[in-house]
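Predict both folds.
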Amino acid sequence: MAPVAELICVGTELLLGDILNSNAQFLAKELAKLGIAHYYQSVVGDNPDRIQQVVRTACDRASLLIFTGGLGPTPDDLTHATLADCFGVPLVEHPEILADIAQKFAQRGRTMTPNNHKQALLPQGAQVLTNSGGSAPGIIWQPRPNVTILTFPGVPTEVKYMWQEVAIPYLKSQGWAQNTVYSRVLRFWGISESSLADKVGNWFDSINPTVAPYANLGEVKLRISAFADSEASAQQMIAPVEATLRQVGGIDCYGADEDTLAIAVGRLLQKTGSTLSVAESCTGGSLGGMLTAVSGSSAYFWGGIISYDNSVKTGLLGVDPHVLATHGAVSHEVAKQMAAGVRDRLNTTWGLSITGIAGPTGDTDDKPVGLVYIGLAGRDRVESFEHRFGALRGRDWVRHLSCCTALDHLRRRLLKAEM
């Protein structure tokens, strides 16, 4: 029977929603890369009885149990003690762990406190899963012939380092990672999930590689996954499918994997030797933030003006006060003048603007929450686009869609200029 893994994340803060469970996402992806089957995840609070219940259930359906959280020095850090109790073994102190913790404290100019001694207590028979980045070591333990346990702290950066440096080599040495599942994610903007599914639906029945759609934050993604004996083989299997899906998706496909619309736009601006400036009203600088989140964006993004008040629109961007009075700040006319104004003031190839009503207040009968105008000014023309994003999902949703849609308008214009 193929080995099966189960993730068990310990921490009441996860149940309360105080902390996003990014460790589960990371480890799920890593297990897929190694080709290790993974069917269940559990989140349990800092309670010994409930942790033991989860362990007993997991042992009946998985052979590799991966824990995160509960390895710290405080009283609510119970993972190792509970595991020892669950399998009927004592905790054993490891002097080398104490020495390592004391050294790390000394390097930071601090003194190790008595409660850190708890972190040196591991279940009898367990190996140390070293943690170079923190004070909480994990364990590699086989309490039963058919059960292997790996434990990690809750700090995501420590989990990632320990996984790469210790866990992966161990799993490979034990023959757990014999195959791999490699995935490629294609990203689309400006098309609905249903419309894209209608175009590529025949691929959803594919067995290997598989193709699956999902939508998130206004964009649609197609995940292509292949199961093979190596990542290189999986990539070869995916390549022709990706090429076909890109061709079918056409201009709506803006990138893959970790690409963002800002990255896609940046590539096109660099390719064409163009520069960009932005003028923002309702998004308050978020568009500029997306652009400057890309390393090297200073090569093509020169800056922006946050024209939240109308006096800034007229004073810095040159918007005509008569146009403002006649059409209002949220209008085609003002969006175009904002885009042309910032392009002129900052002397860039392109000017991109956003003006709208993000809500939840400020709307009128004629101009509801979610109404947004995007302006785009280039060498040959100035144009504007109206969008109605609605009020249902709130202010942040409207602002996010406004920024991404503005970038997409510029992306499409740049692509058409190449044709």
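Second protein follows, with its predicted structure tokens after the sequence.
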Amino acid sequence: MAHVRIFKHYIHFPFIILGLLESLAFILAIFIAVPTRLAIGDIEYEYHYFEILPSAIAYAYTILICMNAMGVYQAKSKEGKTGMFVRTIVAFTIGSLIFPIFYYLASDIFGVIWRSVLLIATVYALVLVFVVRGLFYGMVDENAFKKNVLVLGAGHRAKRVLEDLRNPEDWKGFNLLGFFPYADEEIQVPNYQIVQSYSGLKDYALTHGVDEIIIALDDRRRKLPVEELMACKMEGIQILQEYVFTERETRKVSLEVISPGWFIFSEGFNRSSTWALIKRFTDILASVSLLLLAWPLMLVTAILIKLEEGWRAPLFYKQVRVGLNGNPFEVIKFRSMRVDAEKAGQAIWATKNDSRVTRVGAVIRKYRIDELPQLFNVLKGEMAFVGPRPERPVFVEKLAETIPFYNERHRVKPGLTGWAQLCFAYADSEEDSREKLRYDLYYLKNNSLLLDILIILQTVEVVIFKKGAH
């Protein structure tokens, strides 16, 4: 079991196990910290562990949410142990600052969880989390939860599977045994990845412990080995289409295989009045909360922009973007480029190290501060907190002519942050926009409250560690 699908979103199973173990460690930290504090202060206080259980659970999941926001569970595979250590420390720092808010808001519930207890608990929790993680990674083989995957086919579709999996992060859920060529299909994958077998598909699969067979034949209607696949299926081996496999592993859809029929018959793309109400409530709550926290930063930003370019220079940058169902609206941002950035009146893609960006603009773009005024677009209902990035009409018109189903991304409100923005950072070309559409369609297909929460949490990581800013 490499992945678990929760509310339509795939989550790596080992991360779930590790998260549960660490949450238990955080609860234990509170349970140990209370008697430790009483012993240090020579305080006599009668209590039962059941009384502090709500506090311990609240503390555990506050830290756990902060760790998710910092990308701790992904950091080991991306940045090694050092990156994971740094992100863990940052997560504990943020969590330790946030949790006392609960203490003041609900002191009757927290009982003996004094600030000194929280300090001791944080020390215990840090020690325990590294012990748990050390034991987990030391005792559990990284391949223990991975599935052995065999791709049936070695032609163009098989090559596309390989291209979609070029990111090493996409390989954490499976071991690729190779490509099983079939009939007279033209070989398009590297020879070293071709499986040589003289015993047939079923025998090879059983001999090598194959868990999944991925169908990637170029002409499956005439060449599909139905009897062998049925035999494999009856032996407990899963059979998947290649686009289902790549969606699960890469969290994006394949543009090459989608069609109107794919939209019609695919699981997902659910909409309901209840979900719309929940989504709107979440948007308002998140936007108001962020505005209350960020208004001092927004005030400082406004002053710095005026100081750099003069008091008569415009503070905000307003621009028409394409919104829900293709309807235009005016987005508002802090101005990060020169006033004459598009003096010829022609729309220009923003690029990395763009010379039109001001000094203040470079900083506020790096930390996404320029996006904060869009919270007012969210409150007005023109945008959502989470959704596809809103694009300019001129770009949308051009991209819709060359990229199939590009306008489908406008079936939901554009967002301040989104799945594509997290996974692919910034698009400054048609090819990049094509790739981002794959993530946008994944979001449309699998949207849920859980996915929105994960996106919001991971946006914190993007801001703090300056990922993907132009």
